Amino acid sequence: MHTITRVGDLDVIVKPSPVAMVWNEPGRPHDALAAPGVRLAPGEALVEVELATICGSDVRVARGEEPAPVPLVLGHEAVGRVVAIGEGARRVDGVPLELGDRVVWSTTVSCGECDRCRRGVPQACRTLGRYGHERVHRGWELSGGFATHVQLRRGTGIVRAPEDIPSRVLAPSSCTAATAFAALDAASARVGLDGALVLVTGAGLVGLTVAAMAVEAGAEVIVSEPDASRREFARRFGAVPVDPGARSTSPDGLGTALAAFERRGFGEVHVAVEASGAASAVRTAVNALGAGGVAVLIGTVPAGSEVCLDAESLVRRLVTVQSVRDATGEQLRQAVAFLERSWRSFPFDELVGSTHPLADLDQAIAEAAEGSHVRVGVAPGRRPV
């Protein structure tokens, strides 16, 4: 149990001291950093972490596969409770934050004033900050989810989380559900989802969430995924699973699935969402589209990868190719609303597996690196389960 003491208008003393796990380099265990005092500027809040989950990007940074500033507190997927509030701190919906609010928050911090923010793309803010991706510095030591507390900066999209949704469903939402909603939001600006045929490449958490959201919106969904266990999960999320490694005409092939939908009156794929990060899947997503279709790329293809597309074919088919990275605070709010409506209808609560205490973060990341279809959880003070 932590006690909070305010010292003046800005300074907050927490006892016992908040602890963040700091990453320095591949192969070196995390170091625990205590931050007894937190200075909350206007619009900021201090959140005690209930549960964080390990994203694939956390694993890649820890392995040295992605560049990152050091020292660094990893983690950008979490749910927690507000324990201290700076003057004027508000939720995305404009309601003032209150002590005890259960919240999730955007993966990014935006200024709200630069040309990009004014154009409606705060995820590309000129002074963008990213939870779990910023070098630890004085004044923002609690900058990532692998900590007992996170300091939410002004410009963060903060969303109140319903009490009845399990933490294992909510924790990944700021990354997975928000990105999934952003992808379908982009697609639906051009193609209505109700009655559409949607192809999703990749059945990780983002791809499965895209599938669930599309099914709820009235679409028919095909999920292309090489892993058999993930394909089975896709089926449980209401999608028709196919194996990208199978021959197109085989029972598990994409061609067979498309032919079956054609017999039902679906002449072509209207929306394709690429959520795997594989260059070959980008080609599959774009090439599968029919006339007027839209492809949304949300998987991270490794830097330097090239994807060859037939420009003439794109023009002839009137295809739109769009990318999505992160999500706005409003899109996160809509994603949480989706989970509130639908988490019992889809097996979201099975997509976070074992949970480790914060002190065992290195073990938890090693487990996450094994590549299971489920997230690994990190909960301060909790025993492994």
From TrEMBL:
Alcohol dehydrogenase-like C-terminal domain mapped to chain residues: 206-340
Cofactor(s) in the UniProt record: Zn(2+)
Keyword Protein transport found: no
A molecular-function term among this protein's GO annotations: oxidoreductase activity
Keyword annotations of the record: Metal-binding, Oxidoreductase, Zinc
Gene3D superfamilies: Medium-chain alcohol dehydrogenases, catalytic domain, NAD(P)-binding Rossmann-like Domain
Occurrences of domain Alcohol dehydrogenase-like N-terminal (ranges): 42-154
Family: Belongs to the zinc-containing alcohol dehydrogenase family.
Protein name: Alcohol dehydrogenase
Organism encoding this protein: Agromyces bauzanensis
